[in-house]
Amino acid sequence: MKLSGHQEGFQRYLRTATRLSERTRECYSYEVQTFIRAIKDKEAGQLTNSDLLEWHSRLVEKGLAYSTITLKQSAVKRLLTYLRKFGGVPGARDLLDTLDDLEVAADREPRRAPFALDEETAMRVIAAAGRKPGVG
User: How far is 125 from 100, CA to CA, in rounded Å?
Assistant: First the structure.
C-alpha cells in the first residue's frame, strides 16, 4: 500500500493512541502529507534510508530553520512509528533509527548571557524610573 493509503489510519492513531494536542495533530498531518509528496508517494514497504536522507538533505539545503526541520522530523517519526506498529511495515524500525541519526545544525548563534549592572548603574536606573519622561 502506498503511504497515502495509510493516512486515514495514521489520523486515527494520532487521535486515539497519542496524547498530542489537536494543533500538534494538525501540524503532524500536514507535515506527513508534504513528506509523502516529497518522496512521490512510495509504497510504504519500499521506503528506504536513502529516501529519508535525500528528504532531510533537501530541507537543510532550503535553509529551513532548525525548529522547522525538527517539527518535520517529529511528524515523520510518528508516521514511521504508526507504520511499524499498525501498518505492517517491519522495516520502519530501521527507518526510525536512521531518522534519529540525522542531525540538524542550529541556525543561529548561541545567545550571550545577560550582563550584570554594577551597583552604581543599577541605582541610577532605579532612580530614573521614578522620574517623568523628559525631566532631567
Answer: 49
